[in-house]
Amino acid sequence: MLEKTPLRTEVQSTAEGTTCLVLTGDLDYDTAAELFTLAQELFSADLRLLELDLSGLDFVDSSGVAALINVYNTALARDSAMRIIALTPYLRHLFKVTALDQVFELPPA
Questions:
Q1: Residues 6+ apart with CB under 8 A from 103
Q2: Has residue 52 been placed in a domain?
Q3: Contact residues for 84 (Cβ-Cβ < 8 A; gap 6+)
Q4: Each residue's pLDDT tens digit in the chain (109 positions)?
Q5: d(CA 50, CA 21)
Q6: CATH of the domain at 56
Q7: Is residue 60 in a domain?
């Protein structure tokens, strides 16, 4: 059985005033709510753009994908935006086969 890696989050502010949320570990059933709660808190602070760095994620299940969709929908509902700035080849493939590459703004391959 594979050992689970806990989700770790780090909020970084860029020189341009953008907020970047760096995720590492597993984004799954056990951790998806943590991401969504943190994103809601960030958007409640009148955040205009949330950048997500997903390059450190080891595993994402359907609950993790749903959490990313919920973060995206929260951004839209608050007249804000979400952009993925880094991701693994695994996630790029996952977004492609689920057509989420047509929804999320992704960095060039």
A1: 69, 72
A2: yes
A3: 51, 52, 54, 104, 105, 106, 107
A4: 567 889 999 999 877 778 999 999 999 999 999 999 999 999 998 889 999 999 999 999 999 999 999 999 999 999 999 999 999 999 999 999 999 999 998 999 8
A5: 7
A6: 3.30.750.24
A7: yes
Structural domain span for residue 65: 23-102
Longest dimension (CA), the chain: 43
Calculated CA dihedral for residues 34, 40, 44, 48, nearest 10 degrees: 120
Length of the chain as a residue count:
109
The reported pTM is 0.92
